[in-house]
Structures are given as structure tokens and as C-alpha cells.
Design goal:
About 40% of the residues lie in helices and about 25% in strands. With about 250 residues, it is of the alpha/beta class. The strands form 2 sheets. It has a 6-stranded mixed β-sheet with strand order 6-7-8-3-9-10, sandwiched between helices. It has a 4-stranded antiparallel β-sheet with strand order 2-1-4-5, with helices on one face. It starts with a strand and ends with a helix.
């Protein structure tokens, strides 16, 4: 579903991504981990088109995304939820999803026409139910918990009806209860929608409990990739990233 072929990116003399090649199968649930500065978010930016590659190519379902602006990448079926959600604070989740639907189908004029549109509301209600946000569907986003705000950000991505969903640290800043609720939601989304899901995460308990495969980045290059058990015990990964936590995680 998603293919990354020999992609590189430098900023000045800093080689942030170095010859990365990865394949993510349709319907897979994959994690990318690595120390701070390893290039994880930059890789997501390259995939989404917010940053252009210096070399290499990225294909979605066999079609190259190289050089496409983010809106065209999204239109091809790739959506992203961000580490820090950027939401309209006075909008409710239902209004947020309706706006996402209107803008994705009608462009700017969709936001300047009758709002919310009936077609947009139907899909918005579906996403509310999918994310179990019914209890807060009509509350302004600014009044929601951090965890629910992150859910709204994911919901906006889902309104684009993507085939591939990128999640940049979905549990960042959450307490234990919210964190595991998010994990359960991501698993349920993956199982019920058939989405190809790729996520960045620093919580190793989460990574090794739900990911089908794990890619480890270090200094912009792939250090290891494989099943969670194999990556967890890889000596190079233990030395470069897991360190003293490896025994605890095992």
C-alpha cells in the first residue's frame, strides 16, 4: 500500500533522512521508533508532502506522490493526525468533522456555503460513533480533555476516508488511562476499517504490544526492522535506543 524507495533529505549539511526504503502492506499496523532527532517526524513530513524529498520516491498504492502538495497527497488517500492537535477551539467535534468533510469535497467554497451541509453531517455522525465521542459531540473542543482533543484530530483525518493513516505520537502528553484508551481505539479502528496504519510512538510498552512490525530509525537511517520480539532483542537496537530499559521491556 505504501512504498518508500531510497528516500533522502538534508537540511543544509544535516542529513536527516539517509537512503530509507520501506514497504507497508495493505491493512498493516506498523510502528516507527527511534531516539529524539532520529528523523521520524521528518519521514512523516516527506510522506505527506509537507517537505519534499531530495532523492528517492514515495508511492501510494503504486502511484508516485513525489512533488505533490499535501492537499493532493490527502486526496490520493493518505491522512495524518499530528502530535499536537491544531483545532478550532469553538467548534464542537461534530462541527469540526462537518467542516473537514465540506473542505475536502468542495474546497474553500465548501466552508463559505451553507454549514453544516447534510452530506457532511452524515459522515460526521459516523466518525463520532466510530471514535465513541457521542458524549462530547456537542461540546466546544476547547472544553475537551487532551485525550478527546487528540481523538478529534484523528477524526478529522478519518473524514478524508483515507486508505493510509499516519499517527504522530498519538499518546503524547496523556495519562495512563487516556493512553491505553487511545491504544484500544487505534486497534479497533485498524481492525474494523481495514486501514493501513503507521504510527510514531515513544512508549515502548505500546509499541511492542500492538504493532505488527517495528522500524527503528537512528540518525536518519534504518537501524532495524522486523517483528516486535526480534527488534526488542536486536543488540544494535538495545545499544542505540532501548539501553537499560531493554530488560524491563522484555
Amino acid at each position: 500500500m505504501l512504498s518508500i524507495h531510497n528516500v533522502s533529505k538534508s537540511f543544509g549539511g544535516n542529513h536527516v533522512i539517509q537512503g530509507v526504503s520501506l514497504e507497508f502492506a495493505r491493512g498493516s499496523l506498523s510502528a516507527i521508533i527511534g531516539p529524539n532527532g532520529a528523523g521520524k517526524t521528518t519521514l512523516f513530513n516527506l510522506i505527506c508532502g509537507t517537505v519534499r524529498t531530495d532523492r528517492g520516491d514515495i508511492l501510494l498504492d503504486g502511484t508516485s506522490l513525489r512533488g505533490l502538495p499535501p492537499r493532493m497527497v490527502a486526496a490520493r488517500g493518505l491522512a495524518r493526525a499530528f502530535q499536537v492537535a491544531s483545532l478550532f477551539p469553538t467548534f464542537t467535534p461534530l462541527e469540526s468533522f462537518s467542516a473537514a468533510m465540506a473542505s475536502s469535497h468542495l474546497g474553500v467554497k465548501g466552508l463559505l456555503s451553507e454549514f453544516p451541509r447534510r452530506q457532511s453531517l452524515d459522515r460526521a455522525h459516523e466518525v463520532i460513533e466510530l471514535l465513541e465521542l457521542g458524549a462530547v459531540a456537542h461540546r466546544p473542543v476547547a472544553q475537551l480533555s487532551h485525550g478527546d482533543q487528540k481523538m478529534v484530530d484523528i477524526g478529522i483525518a478519518l473524514c478524508l476516508s483515507p486508505s493510509v493513516l499516519l499517527l504522530d505520537e498519538p499518546t503524547a502528553g496523556m495519562g495512563p488511562e487516556e493512553r491505553w484508551h487511545m491504544v484500544e481505539t487505534v486497534q479497533r479502528l485498524w481492525k474494523t476499517t481495514g486501514l493501513t496504519v503507521l504510527f510514531i510512538e515513544h512508549d515502548m510498552d505500546i509499541v511492542f504490544s500492538i504493532a505488527q512490525d517495528v522500524t527503528v530509525l537512528s540518525y536518519g537511517a534504518i537501524l532495524a526492522r522486523g517483528a516486535p520480539a526480534a527488534v526488542r532483542s536486536d543488540p544494535a537496537v538495545v545499544t542505540a535506543y532501548l539501553g537499560s530499559h531493554a530488560e524491563e521491556i522484555a
